[in-house]
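Minutes, project check-in

Agenda point 3 was the complex the collaborators sent over. CS summarized: two entities, 730 residues total, and the question is how they sit relative to each other. Sequences were read into the notes so everyone works from the same version.
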Amino acid sequence: MRSLTKKRGDMYYAMALTLPAVILALLFIFIPIIDSVIKSFQDYKVRNIIGNIPGEWNNFENYTKIFQSGALPNAVVNTFSFVILVILCQFVLGMALALVLNSNVKCARFFRSIMMTPWVVPTVISALIWMWLFQPQYGLFKYIVEVFTGGRVTDFAMLNNPSTALLGVSIAALWKQIPLMTLLLLAGLQNVPTDILEAATIDGAGSVRKFFRITLPYLSPVVKVSISMSIIENFKQFPLFWTMTGGGPDGATTNLAILSYREAFVSMNMGSGAAVTTIWMALMIVTIGVYNRLFRTQDLS
Amino acid sequence: MKKILTLMAIVLSAAGILFAGGGAESTAVAASAENPLTIKVANYALLESGYEDFWNGVKEGFEARYPQYRIEWVTAPYGEILNQVINMAGGGDRVDVIFGEEAWVPQLYASGLAAPVTGIVDEEFLSDFDPAVMDVFTIDGDIYGVPLYVSPFILYYNTDLFEQAGLDPDNPPKTYDEMLAAAQKLSQLTDANGNKVYAFGQTTASVVVSGNALISMIYNFGGDVFTEDGQLNVDNEGFRQAFEMLALLDENGYNPQNAKLKDLRNLFALGQLAMYYDQSWGFNGVTSINPDAASFTASAAPLAGGSGTGEAVLCSHCFILVDNGDARNEAVNTFVQYVISEEVLNDYMSSVTPAYPAKESMSDMEAVANSGVLKGAADSISNVKKVPYVSAMSDISLDLCTLAQAVTVSDTPVDEAISAFVRSASVKI
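CS then shared the predicted structure for the full assembly.
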């Protein structure tokens, strides 16, 4: 009887400890999301916020306008292109760096510390640095391209060309994000059992075979988490785009974050901004869901 | 007992986080030197180099002359100050004055924050402003801003480069055709380091002010963007000709692609840009890079193109007022009249921000009469055209930038680019 009371007491105590987190999550995550979805179906502008005027149902007008304007498909394509490009490059380069740092390379600890520098630089500052590097009249990249092409290309302007602008922002994102990916993968690599790797070596397995048959499967939980984090980070990437290109040139870097910001805070139309956000959130949930499903299948196999 | 204490601590902490905050300042007691009233002035300029000293001087001077009032600055970077003000208002904390641009008025009017100035500022003071200038701030018959000074998008040009190209620096181009003829010669030049000299600069980057500059260029050609009642009106020759001109400038490599105004100011300051459109106060950005820029800078009226006469958009730095009750309005009235005076603005307009006064009684002030960089474009103040009120103005300005980028960096045919613009902009109006 006494043991049952103690068990119940512990349960209440555990619940009480969890309660603040649940309340905060409800207040600051779940309720705002639900509120945003509701507002996406309403005529809700800044005037409503300031005057405390409730929004009015507007017959899906926010959604129909977004589709009519033709901005949404371009933003979706740009968002996915950016996410796929950055994650693929980030994983390959991050893994390569992690493997190098996990080997007995000299000064590995020093390189590990130096490598983290871009990660600690605020995103807006990173964007400004890369803007200057890509600056079309006196940027470093313009000079490098001019030198390497023997003066044949004198007007290299990464961010001014609609076909290369997204690549320019992606390079800035990679510079900032590769360190974290490398660090996570490096932590995973250090947990791969060396006895299994040694046994495989004795059995005559080559480096490539060991990497794909032993290292990568052992790394899969770390890879799964780090890529999930990267998908989310890049799906909602805003400061790099807004600072470096503002969505231009000619809409080449307008992603869903930029579109949402323009609707909500440039047009001052919160309902329309919420509609973009709702579509954006749905796409992100589906993407993460598909990714998790694919990864789970791989685990089982 | 330990558990209970831990729980109490958690509950108290959570309550602290949830309910922390301050109450609004009471304004029921009359303002006096012993009990001064504080007004909140949102001002992005305090975070920009070159302006901080002036505004700190304004605060000092105002508080010394009117000890019953205090100024509290609300600051944020230029691109964020509007959101800052609106977010504060959404939380019940409304600023009293917003220092901004005339292009912000539609947004602040639509948000319900901007108040008609006639109910706050003395009529006698307001009657001294040029009616054409105040018309820019008029929506549905009410005035929603008080300008400190004004400027159309004027043409700045480099007299040294004109001389090097064999052009008469005292006879700048007056039309786009004349500009193209001059541009052909200017584009042959290089600077001392062998860098290319761009002949003509028109901002087209994706920022709201670039959209305003593009509207001004459309007006140069006698074109329109909106009807009087704020509907889209782009089916006119002037509109098309402006974008055909941008495409031509790009094709010839005369205009730096996708440039912000600050990029153009940099290039102009470094002698790599011969002519460009800017608000008069953009010259401050030029001198911050090259303090000797005054020696080679002159201004001219906006160019005329097509059947247009070179009409332009009138820009201004202005105060947009928020009605927070009689006591605060009285303080705001005093503040506005203090700042918009020859005494306060003369030094500022002569050494920091060259601009044309908005008040008729200030038209002969020394800062303007003796300004070498301003005199060439002085007559352009009388050739301006109002942009009708459109609540989604800022977003449509960005769409205009996209249109300009389409005909330049993307090489999209002008008709096709205009159709895409109409599709995007029409759903926003």
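Noted in discussion: Chain B touches chain A through 47 residues (CB under 8 Å).
Follow-up: revisit at the next meeting once the mutant set is ready.
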